[in-house]
């Protein structure tokens, strides 16, 4: 028994049986749920049901570590209300509080019910300090997030059964792990297993219940229910672990009325006495960001405004939505050469003036590529207004400013409070620029999952083909600009080498660009392509989903792409995808051989082989298409993107409360 263990443990039955006093659940008068569990060094206590008026999950420990609830389903648990976690978008965010930055000793105690086993699931995780999870082989791990851990034997818990778990570490950083200092208790009993490594936690980054954000990836969810979470800055004794397990069994869960939609998605930071006004400044508003903007503007705890530097750009035919979210357009004094496959440089003095005369509480700048953003950063810093960068950049080569004036980019990055990125490649870029890991937030790129829904039947697919005038063959789809960078000529080389007409293959090209005439000439000149390619040109936002529904596979031959949103669209539509490794989005979206194929860029022969593989194996196409849509629905929806932005805003405001200077101090 550790020195901190309570004397009340003398009340146990002889032989180590059940406690005389049952675990009653967490409450104000019994913050650990049992008089036989000492509250000494308790730093977090969630009953998973009680929420404050602001919407935050109440911390009964008295340390103020209230959590923000995102998604989840309110259910009945062993001790009253509990929370159900069904997708990667369901979790409880832990505050960035020093009391939770524990390197040892440490205990985590949870009541949990697994709805599914055989998959990697995190129950409680605070990167890069500690985590309690179960792997795909149903082995529990209690670790320092760096591979040093206690690992249990497999198969210790069944599904759909409430289980108590207590993980304890009685040591400090640098301590070799063995049976004397690290343990896991399942239903009050020591779990068989092994300890290995040296406890070596890193710096604190961010914490969650029901999720982990390993390396910035937000698709390692917990799939089940959680009724209680306790965290201690000490090791619980074996008697306390047994006391935690001493609870009556509960029958099947009974769903309770769900909370309002906005409240389930967004909660207050709890640090501001009024609703903060948040402004996001971006070049334009693409149609795939509309749903995300609607969700953010529906948040009851922030006033979210969208400002754009221009209504559209010359290489896009997008217009601002009518009757949708509120968007403010400013006059642009810049230069737009995007129709020549060059950059659009926006400069908006009106934005700078508006920031000065009607300053918001918080600003998100759309990257470092635009003169307006660079100028706005100087204004915001002078006024003491915190701001984040929202950027998809993966290299200085992605913008004129990055290529010609990288010192300006480094200066801007140093002054911002953090960065919002869509995935791994951008995250690595900003880590290389010196941004701290805990200042990088992931808001994954997303498309409307309802608009890009797959066909419900083969008859519906055939109807789409008929309406679009497409042949009844194996249809390969390309959507994108016709430029050298997008690899369109590589695709024609690959497709032509397959002799597609004789195999029943047909290529559909949707898009326009500088190589339009060269593409058409190549199709006319090459006998293997004549009659085997349909070039559509521009497809409206209403037509585009129909092309995805009509075709059998999607091919993305790009030579360089900072993401590749067409991959989101195709996978959302249930299509197996073939992409080159030059699309940064493949790192996050595609698991090779599971939901798509990845080939080297500028290698038409390998691209052709991948097309042929899909053509010859319809069952493989169907299987990967199902997995592709599952990938999108499990972490790449507008809701996930909105949550990423909202989390970035709340956590940054917690770290950087508004320091806005009074008007008299401004120029």
Task: Write a brief structural summary.
The chain is an alpha/beta fold. It contains 18 helices and 33 strands. Helix content is 25%, strand content 22%.
Task: Set down the secondary structure blueprint.
Blueprint: E1 42-46, E2 68-70, E3 73-77, E4 80-85, E5 91-94, E6 106-114, E7 121-127, E8 130-134, E9 140-143, E10 149-152, E11 163-169, E12 182-186, E13 189-190, E14 193-196, E15 206-209, E16 211-212, E17 220-221, E18 224-232, H1 238-245, H2 261-265, E19 277-282, H3 290-297, E20 303-308, E21 327-329, E22 335-336, E23 344-345, H4 349-357, E24 362-365, H5 371-383, E25 387-390, H6 400-404, H7 406-415, E26 419-421, H8 424-432, E27 440-442, H9 458-468, E28 474-479, H10 488-496, H11 500-503, E29 505-510, H12 516-525, E30 533-537, H13 544-550, E31 553-556, H14 565-572, E32 577-580, H15 586-589, E33 596-599, H16 604-616, H17 618-633, H18 638-655
Parallel strand pairs: 19-20, 19-24, 20-21, 24-25, 25-26, 26-27, 28-29, 28-31, 29-30, 31-32, 32-33
Antiparallel strand pairs: 1-18, 2-5, 3-4, 4-18, 5-15, 6-11, 6-18, 7-8, 7-15, 8-9, 9-10, 10-14, 11-12, 12-13, 16-17, 22-23
Helix pairs in contact: 3-18, 4-5, 5-7, 9-13, 10-16, 14-17
């Amino acid at each position: 028994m550790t020195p901190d263990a309570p004397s009340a443990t003398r009340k146990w039955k002889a032989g180590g049986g059940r406690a005389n006093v049952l675990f009653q659940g967490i409450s104000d008068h019994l913050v650990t749920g049992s008089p036989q569990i000492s509250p000494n060094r308790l730093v977090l206590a969630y009953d998973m049901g009680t929420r404050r008026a602001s919407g935050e999950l109440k911390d009964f420990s008295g340390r103020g570590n209230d959590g923000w609830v995102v998604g989840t389903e309110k259910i009945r648990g062993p001790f009253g209300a509990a929370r159900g976690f069904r997708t990667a978008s369901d979790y409880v965010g832990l505050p960035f509080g020093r009391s939770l930055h524990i390197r040892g000793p440490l205990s985590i105690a949870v009541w949990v019910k697994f709805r599914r086993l055989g998959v990697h699931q995190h129950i409680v995780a605070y990167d890069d300090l500690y985590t309690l999870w179960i792997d795909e082989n149903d082995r529990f791990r209690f670790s320092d997030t760096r591979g040093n851990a206690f690992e249990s034997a497999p198969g210790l818990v069944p599904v759909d059964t409430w289980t108590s778990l207590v993980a304890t570490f009685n040591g400090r950083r640098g301590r070799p792990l063995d049976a004397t200092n690290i343990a896991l208790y399942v239903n009050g009993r020591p779990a068989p297993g092994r300890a290995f490594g040296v406890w070596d936690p890193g710096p604190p980054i961010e914490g969650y219940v029901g999720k982990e954000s390993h390396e910035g990836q937000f698709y390692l969810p917990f799939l089940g229910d959680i009724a209680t979470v306790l965290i201690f800055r000490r090791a619980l004794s074996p008697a306390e672990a047994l006391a935690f397990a001493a609870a009556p069994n509960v029958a099947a869960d009974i769903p309770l009325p769900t909370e309002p939609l906005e409240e389930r998605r967004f909660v207050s930071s709890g640090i501001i006495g009024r609703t903060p006004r948040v402004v996001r400044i971006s070049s334009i508003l693409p149609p795939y960001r509309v749903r995300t903007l609607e969700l953010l503007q529906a948040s009851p705890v922030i006033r979210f405004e969208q400002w754009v530097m221009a209504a559209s750009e010359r290489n896009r035919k997008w217009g601002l939505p009518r009757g949708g979210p509120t968007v403010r357009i400013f006059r642009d004094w810049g230069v737009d050469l995007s129709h020549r496959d060059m950059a659009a440089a926006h400069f908006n003095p009106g934005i700078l003036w508006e920031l000065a005369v009607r300053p918001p509480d918080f600003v998100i700048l759309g990257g470092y590529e635009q003169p307006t953003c660079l100028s706005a950063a100087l204004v915001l810093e002078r006024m003491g207004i915190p701001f984040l960068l929202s950027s998809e950049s993966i290299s200085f080569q992605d913008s004129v400013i990055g290529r010609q004036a990288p010192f300006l980019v480094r200066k801007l990055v140093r002054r911002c409070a953090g960065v919002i990125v869509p995935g791994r490649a951008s995250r690595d870029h900003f880590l290389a620029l010196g941004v701290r890991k805990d200042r990088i937030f992931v808001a994954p790129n997303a498309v409307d999952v309802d608009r890009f829904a797959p066909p419900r039947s083969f008859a519906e697919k055939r109807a789409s083909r008929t309406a679009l005038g497409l042949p009844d063959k194996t249809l390969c789809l390309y959507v994108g600009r016709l430029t050298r960078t997008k690899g369109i000529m590589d695709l024609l080389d690959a497709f032509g080498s397959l002799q597609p007409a004789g195999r029943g293959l047909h290529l559909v090209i949707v898009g326009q660009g500088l190589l339009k005439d060269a593409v058409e000439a190549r199709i006319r000149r090459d006998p293997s392509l004549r009659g085997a390619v349909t070039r559509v040109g521009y497809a409206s936002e209403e037509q585009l989903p129909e092309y995805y529904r009509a075709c059998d596979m999607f091919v993305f031959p790009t030579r360089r792409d900072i993401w590749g949103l067409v991959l989101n669209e195709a996978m959302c539509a249930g299509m197996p995808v073939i992409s080159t490794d030059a699309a940064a989005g493949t790192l996050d979206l595609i698991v090779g051989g599971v939901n798509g194929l990845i080939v080297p860029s500028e290698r038409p022969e390998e691209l052709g082989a991948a097309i042929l593989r899909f053509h010859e194996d319809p069952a493989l196409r169907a299987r990967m298409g199902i997995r592709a849509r599952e990938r999108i629905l499990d972490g790449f929806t507008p809701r996930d993107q909105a949550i990423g932005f909202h989390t970035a805003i709340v956590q940054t405001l917690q770290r950087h409360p508004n320091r806005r200077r009074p008007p008299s101090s401004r120029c």
